[in-house]
């Protein structure tokens, strides 16, 4: 690569937005950067990039940067951005698409792993019985994700145990799970959607994006 | 007696059993028979739409197909997130991309948010004449949350930035309803388990503002909102260094109280923030 003065520091990959559109049917390129999404977002305080910049990065093709960002996991899917976008971009839907991509490639930033681990534990529970059994799910999440250790370290573990005991006392934590009778139907749904994530789709196949990210510095 | 299909969702079998009990009680008083969807499954919630877009449509979609097969023309949903996911599945399975999914759905089921269903004009009229204990002393802010209203393309909500059906309901029941700007702001939803720090910040904003408006309680129509505002209140109070003590009621609990259901107060006693002092002070404890 030429590092001379006339070299652009950003290598743009316009194909990324097209790939995202093909897969999600969401068109980020119509964004004119009014930042209405960011103005209404309740979680910007915990994000590394506000939502409007995620959209901008997408248009520029900075895939790695987006997939490694906290923003996509911190998004609570409140749908305020999607509702208010004057160009009708489903921004919360984009965040979902990006989480799905990051999940498929196994690149979740460390501070967002609890969020990812909880989603995985939740879906395992659904796959098992067709319904979620909250008491079992919470226990398993705490133990398998190592969340109990961080709670112990920051002193919040006992407050959570107290809350759990209070719920139990008030009859709000049933001890036995209920499930769906037609387990095979649930199994078929999970198996069927698993196939759709085969690594032959265009976003997985892209190779230029990572190099572009490595040399990019739009800020 | 009116019969309607009912999709309770997983939480109403667990931590939101208080909500479930009050819904049963209120519907009985209103002569509405809830026919639970047979063999329903989880809607997939935030986990599914975060990790797998097809799962996020096919899990709730199976319930729509079941309802159609079971001949239910209307499906009432008390959980805001389940409602949102069922509506998302409805749009996806009937839309131009329906070939992406393995389910066949004809679209004969009308998915309805419980509060929408219970606050139809004729019901409000009925309640006005049948309320036995007006909710005097209750100064409420109505908290609608996100998922019943947004995005309107999915929810078909008529007034997503400023919904008013809960306001109208509580006024009919004799409560004083206070205006406030956070009707549809986010409580943090499923982050309560994996990133409780985020929920503490978001609910802290909501609780402080409700107090500043002069509310003595918050009224909700979503069990996730209820859980986050109720279970996190002690922690938020500690962080803010002030007492909060704001009971968080389901709208159905207040309906049951005003309509004189004998078990109404006992459901609300299952909350973590004790509602009894407020109910006693308002002459509503039984």
UniProtKB/TrEMBL annotation, chain A:
Residues 22-52 form the 4Fe-4S ferredoxin-type domain. Keywords: 4Fe-4S, Iron, Iron-sulfur, Metal-binding, Oxidoreductase. GO terms for cellular component: plasma membrane. GO terms for molecular function: 4 iron, 4 sulfur cluster binding; metal ion binding; oxidoreductase activity. PROSITE patterns: 4FE4S_FER_1 (PS00198), 4FE4S_FER_2 (PS51379). It holds the Pfam family Fer4_17. InterPro entries: 4Fe4S_Fe-S-bd, 4Fe4S_Fe_S_CS, HdrC_iron-sulfur_subunit, Helical_ferredxn. Residues 193-219 are annotated as: Disordered. This is Heterodisulfide reductase subunit C. It comes from Desulfacinum infernum DSM 9756.
From TrEMBL, chain B:
Pfam families: CCG (PF02754). The keyword Oxidoreductase applies. The keyword Oxidoreductase applies. Transmembrane segments: none annotated. Keywords: Oxidoreductase. Residues 4-87, 142-230 form the Cysteine-rich domain. GO terms for molecular function: oxidoreductase activity. This is Heterodisulfide reductase subunit B.
